Amino acid sequence: KCNQERLWNSIMEIGQIGHVDVEGSKVGGCHRLALTDKDKQARDLFIGWAKEIGCTLRVDAVGNIFLRRAGTDNDLPPVITGSHLDTQPTGGKFDGIFGCLAGLETLRCLEEQNIKTLRPIEVVVWTNEEGARFKPAMLGSGVYAGVFKLNDVLTTKDESGITLGDELSRLGYQELINNEDPGCYQYYEIHIEQGPVLEALEIDLGIVAGVLGMRWYDVEVTGRSCHAGPSPMNLRNDALVGVAEMITELTKLASSFSKDSRCTFGELNIPNSSTNVSPGKVNFSLDLREGRLEELDELQTKAFEIMHRIAFHHDLELSIKETWSLPPCPFDESCLTNIQQACEATYPEIKPHTLISGAGHDAVYISRVAPTAMIFVPSEDGLSHNEREYTSPEQLEKGCNVLLNTIILAANA
Amino acid sequence: KCNQERLWNSIMEIGQIGHVDVEGSKVGGCHRLALTDKDKQARDLFIGWAKEIGCTLRVDAVGNIFLRRAGTDNDLPPVITGSHLDTQPTGGKFDGIFGCLAGLETLRCLEEQNIKTLRPIEVVVWTNEEGARFKPAMLGSGVYAGVFKLNDVLTTKDESGITLGDELSRLGYQELINNEDPGCYQYYEIHIEQGPVLEALEIDLGIVAGVLGMRWYDVEVTGRSCHAGPSPMNLRNDALVGVAEMITELTKLASSFSKDSRCTFGELNIPNSSTNVSPGKVNFSLDLREGRLEELDELQTKAFEIMHRIAFHHDLELSIKETWSLPPCPFDESCLTNIQQACEATYPEIKPHTLISGAGHDAVYISRVAPTAMIFVPSEDGLSHNEREYTSPEQLEKGCNVLLNTIILAANA
Ligand SMILES: NC(=O)NCCC(=O)O
Ligand SMILES: NC(=O)NCCC(=O)O
Fold first, then answer.
1. What region does A136 belong to: left with phi over 0, alpha with psi -120 to 50, or beta?
2. What does the entry list as the binding residues for Zn(2+) 1 (chains A, B) (predicted)?
């Protein structure tokens, strides 16, 4: 059994790094973009805690951090658990952070109760999971899984032109430490749901059977800028007016397409905008998600058709560039069974709910190189990527206990 | 008669300061925001040219530049003509610049042909007409006319927090030179039309009877940000989805309201935006224009109703702040008659077209303190606030000749 208070206090303490007071929030939000000074502070604090309980440190070439508790047979590949410490620009205190701290709490319990496991156990902190600063998301786990080339990721730039590699070395996280890959026997990640399903069902434990497929696009719409005064409405060629229709139509499409379909316009920019200039160019991001590959393809086809039709109708040029693509990801059956068993053993009175994650997680990439599954705990109001994100100490404790018992099962197999 | 080649060459030479090559543009565009280093270069060049023909310099407290050619009775208030040298972020080579250079060409002709006038004549360069860097537009002429308080304008900040006053002193234009206001007998401004009317009529000369009323608003729409993946479409509270509907509906409203109504969304910003976050807040600018005050009021009322209805329907908070308001402005009858007479004398074969300007001009503010009117020349394709802005040397010459003869009429009255 884990220590609820220690788990909660650690989450709150690390959440002070980047803390923001927010009206209507129980614990405040957290602004801690990947590989900023604040991210380094959080990483350093986390490593310090793990070292206090005797863990050894490994850092790989993209700054992923592995903290290892030895097993009785250290030639066996470790069981790995963890998540990320970076947040969205207006993030909360739980997304990612809970997964790392629950991993740490697991090791603290094993150490405290002097429990030995056959396999070593590692807690991992993946670099730049959110994709808010460096795009796309899940870059660190993507490199680990061989999905992204190391050099491509190191030269990825943020909005101000700084590369991920430069930030790693500025923060002292480019230094390879014990960088010999011991492999991964199984990977487990616990996370807040970031959606409303578990809360609505009033079930505190979720077993994540898989993740929606998702695609990101950079869209550029070009018309002709003109003066806001002398240009009659019917002679304009306003890119934003076309884009507004696209937003409305695609939102309608995704709302009626299937229960799993999602369509989000997260970023929108008018280059060189000015109050009295009708926009000649608009750039925006489009994020489409679906549960099955054929449906994702169909959603994309329909969305593109609509955008082309609107662009044609308004005499606008349209360019759509895919920047990230992830097929729907089913998790490993035996890992799911381990979680199921750990749930039954720990909370026989709870019937955990099996669900599909709408959010991508590092676990998606790791599932390509090791058997993987995830555990969810509820999110209050289904909120995430929002400063008001919240999960209660009791709910976090339940999830952490299931993780602990899952890890013990896996590490002794 | 003015010197077409000299006028054109001067416009092209000053347009090199901030020049950008643009595909499909005959002469390229110009990026020269108010009170940047480039604006200073253009001001210095302009002053140098005027001094070469013996003009004396006056600079007032907001950096407006007056270049004076003496009359035979220098106790009389001068006839003033001019415009501005600043451009939009993606501006052209004629908006404002032509008015300053046509004023200079007028003085060059008088000097060359040794023509004396009773009254002194001044060519003026107003500070920050465009409103692209410091908001709102027409700040320099607004201070001159007593519409804005000097100190408010000096402390106005650009997007990066730099004040207009700081920039004036950095560029050496805070220094008062001969800053004693001699008054203004009449003010004439020549400008490109920035719209399609004269070109469609194939008439090269426009007499501007007045200017549309216009209002600027800062609008903020607030919903709740959430994660692009786990949040079902029907549970979202997406500010951008609401704003997209507002853009579509208000564009429709202005398109059918009256032939003079205009509605423009020039700027739109999602604070802390991220690809996988559905926007919780959107800020945008709204620019409404109409020909008559009652209609402007009615347009505003309807626009606000629509925005409130959409906000309510999507459960969004809405805040609308008016940032600038200009009632419709009729110009002075006797000034208009002078222009009419100058047209008849110079180009008896042309029947100039009388029209209303959709763009605000420094002349609007000056009309509150001195009799004022404007002359227009055509804009190719009706384009302005666009790098492809163009008016031919022949058309500029015609306008300049009418200005020259108008000024001679006025300066001898
Ligand atoms: N969990 C999470 O926020 N992941 C970021 C990737 C995504 O957009 O789903
Ligand atoms: N002429 C011009 O571009 N003026 C700027 C003020 C306006 O937006 O009309």
1. beta
2. 84, 95, 191
